[in-house]
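Subject: Sanity check before I submit

Could someone independently write out the structure tokens for this chain? I want to compare against mine line by line before I put it in a report. The sequence has 147 residues.
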Amino acid sequence: MNAQSFEAVARDVLTRALAMVGLLGIALIHTLDAIPTFSELPYKAWLYVVLITGAIAVAAMIVRRPTRWVWTAAGALVGGAIVGFVYSRTVGLPGAPDDIGNWTEPLGVASLFVESIVLGVAGYAVAAIAPARTAIDRTRGLVSHAA
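---
Independent answer below. Compare away.
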């Protein structure tokens, strides 16, 4: 294995590992918050269940075969979670006026931190996949060298 191949493999492993650990961290954070939320605001807890399930599923897909679609799904999932958090702290969710302005809640801050990292990693991966695929296709003669 040459140095360039080693770098590409190392970059791929690191990118996938960061995303997987981040997504599982998001699932854990929301599991911790969902437990008391079921009695307080059931619809919000079920939204957490959807996020938790999605995070675990996307993490598994990233480990198995991270396509551009999977990386886009990871970005959309965590982007949606970030938007939900901001919405709950500004406009407020129905039945949850106490969340408005509560920007320093520890699980929320932890979640935003991890979600931002996963969003950045997913963005990097989506941007890196197209040039890598084009280079592979060129070596196979599938793309014109003038492209």
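---
OP: Matches mine. For the report I'm noting this point. Residues 143-147 have pLDDT under 50 and may be disordered.
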